Amino acid sequence: MEIGIIGLSKSGKTTVFNALTRGHAKVTAGAGGGKPNVGVAKVPDARLDKLTAMFKPKKTTPAEVTYVDIPAAPEGLGKEAGIGGEYLNRLQRADALLHVVRGFDDPSVPHVQGTVDAFRDVGTMDMELAFSDLAILERRLKRLEADLKRAKVIERDALHKEEALLTRVKDALGAGKALRDMLLEAEERRVLENYQFLTGKPLLVALNIDEAHVPKEAELAKELGKHITGAAVRGVALCGKLEAELGQMAPEEEREFRASLGAGESGLVRMIRLSYDVLGLISFFTVGEDECRAWTITRGLAAQKAAGKIHSDIERGFIRAEVIAYDDLMKAGGMAEARKLGTLRAEGKTYEIKDGDIAHFLFNV
After folding, report:
1. Are residues 135 and 256 in the same domain?
2. pTM above 0.85, yes or no
3. In what order do the strands lie in the sheet with 203-208?
């Protein structure tokens, strides 16, 4: 899973990137230029910790999330110019977008628009994403117009359907509706996937607050939720600066410091939970003496396809899966006991892997 981090200049998005990845990317007050910062966050999962304690493997491998801190365009955002060039190309490859919105006031780092107004900035970024999509739509519609003039009769029906679909999307964007919120048929979504429109991607909005407002994180997140809508949109409030500092501490020291500040669970944990939720993802596990590992898949994925996440040969030669729910394994106390209780079961290739399932795939190639 790859998440692209965006935000207006001086919003603190690189600080949030450092908090999420426990990184040390250079934070600058200015906009523009530079290469993206790329970092990997290990997904915290108490279930994997307990499985490790049970099986005592040589190796434990958590799931991972890649965060890409996209540098601001040289000309800056917030000017209704859209996102283009290499910045657009990188964002198009992301599975979801994380918009860091400034919610802190710091006179030494003035806001690009003069005042701090998080909800205004949410709207500004929404427009930038829409302008980028509209630019792609307009270019494609012009090409379709030219293609239709020279197309053979047998080709025209498909071209007319694409033209009608793109026109509908363009009208919706012009009316302020993001692609992710449009009602579309499955075939229409497949067509649009080729374009990687930014307003079609799931969106996370992180309100970057100052330390004084940390005790009000839940209240501020609730208020943010009133201003961001859509089935594929989620919001969270966190203090990027504080989270980045805490992320450099030893785990026990971090827990104690959080408790003293009333900071609750880490921003990383909350962000990853929201990321999984907005993308419709779950985790399943493989266990054994050599390795205990978490795997990230789309909710509803069949066992045979889930096996392919481990190796294509396992998917190709799939015979069956031995599956047990995490809670059932914990109650049994081990695989041998679970087998006696009948909670370890055999499933076929169409079985939908559930969140927390422990699976062992049998295959023959």
Report:
1. no
2. yes
3. 37-42, 64-69, 2-6, 96-102, 203-208, 233-238
Domain shared by 11 and 95, yes or no: yes
Structural domains counted in the chain? 3
Per-residue pLDDT tens, the chain, 365 aa: give them.
899 999 988 899 999 999 998 877 777 655 455 688 899 999 999 999 999 999 999 999 999 999 999 876 544 555 555 577 778 888 999 999 999 999 998 888 888 788 889 999 999 999 999 999 999 999 999 999 898 888 888 888 888 999 999 999 999 999 999 999 999 999 999 999 989 999 999 999 999 999 888 888 889 999 998 888 888 999 999 999 988 888 888 888 888 888 887 767 787 888 889 999 999 999 999 999 999 999 999 999 999 999 999 999 999 999 999 999 999 999 999 999 999 999 999 999 999 999 999 999 999 98
List the domain range (segments joined by +) for residue 80: 2-117+200-278
Instruction: Tell me how far apart the alpha carbons of residues 51 and 275 are, in angstroms, rounded to a whole number.
Output: 23
- Read off the tokens for 317: 């030669």
Q: What is the CATH number of the domain that holds 343?
A: 3.10.20.30
Q: Is the dihedral of CA 129, 198, 186, 144 positive or negative?
A: positive
Contact (Cβ atoms closer than 8 angstroms) between residue 206 and residue 99: yes
Q: 35 — phi, psi (to 5°)? A: -95, 155
The whole-angstrom separation of Cα 112 and Cα 106 is 12
